[in-house]
């Protein structure tokens, strides 16, 4: 029996569905096509139930690698999301003023969450508690997280300070493989 060839309308519809799924995952522009060796390594760690903590200076490809892994999960049929830590916290705060509900709960349930730019948010007690809850919940559920930051884990611990900083760093250390991203700023080219 010969396989039926898809019509151009069917192919276009599949492309639209794929693009929609990638947008819902937080992937726009170049991030929707992201492909990098470190992103593939993050995906492999995800497949083994392990997260990734990507740290380094600006422009070294941390977010691009996280986007690559999120794209791979989405194309594999999974639920994944790339969002900044600040956007997550802003989304939760917006709920207090009648915004869309369930931001934190959704973040706790994605097959893979890529939390971008951790350490750039204001380290208020509420922010520390919320991020720690998110990492705890995802870890307890066995859901890997990719975290990107400009800070080494020890620096992030110091920025957050006290027991809260120690707890957060310890939880990330237990849940994620730490990877330093180095090199020149790719955006400066």
Could you please describe the fold and organization of this structure?
With 189 residues, the protein is of the alpha/beta class. It contains 8 helices and 5 strands. The chain has a 5-stranded parallel β-sheet with strand order 2-3-4-1-5, sandwiched between helices. β3, α6 and β4 form a beta-alpha-beta unit.
Provide a concise account of the structure shown.
The chain is α/β, with parallel strands linked by helices.
Output the structural class: alpha/beta
Order of SSEs, N→C?
A: HHEHEHHEHEHHE
Tally of strands: 5
Question: Can you tell me the residue ranges where pLDDT is under 50 for at least 5 consecutive residues?
Answer: none
In helices, the fraction of residues equals: 40-55%
First and last CA, distance: 53 Å
Write down the overall geometry. Answer: globular
Number of helices: 8
Strand proportion, as a percent range, falls in: 5-15%
Kindly provide the radius of gyration, computed on alpha-carbon positions and rounded to a whole number of angstroms.
18 Å
Order the strands across the largest sheet as they lie in space: 2-3-4-1-5
Largest sheet: 5 strands, parallel
Mean pLDDT, to the nearest integer, reads 92
């Amino acid at each position: 029996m010969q396989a039926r060839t898809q019509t151009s309308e069917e192919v276009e519809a599949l492309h639209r569905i794929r693009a929609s799924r990638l947008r819902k995952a937080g992937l726009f522009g170049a991030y929707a096509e992201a492909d990098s060796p470190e992103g593939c390594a993050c995906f492999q760690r995800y497949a083994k139930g392990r997260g990734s903590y990507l740290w380094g200076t600006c422009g070294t490809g941390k977010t691009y690698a996280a986007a690559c892994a999120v794209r791979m999960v989405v194309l594999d049929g999974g639920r994944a999301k790339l969002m900044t830590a600040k956007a997550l916290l802003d989304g939760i705060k917006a709920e207090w003023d009648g915004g869309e509900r369930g931001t934190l709960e959704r973040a706790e349930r994605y097959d893979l969450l890529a939390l971008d730019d951790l350490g750039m948010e204001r380290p208020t007690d509420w922010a520390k508690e919320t991020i720690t809850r998110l990492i705890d919940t995802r870890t307890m559920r066995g859901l890997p997280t990719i975290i990107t930051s400009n800070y080494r884990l020890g620096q992030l611990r110091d920025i957050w300070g006290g027991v809260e900083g120690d707890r957060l760093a310890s939880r990330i250390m237990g849940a994620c493989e730490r990877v330093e991203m180095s090199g020149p700023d790719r955006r400066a080219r």
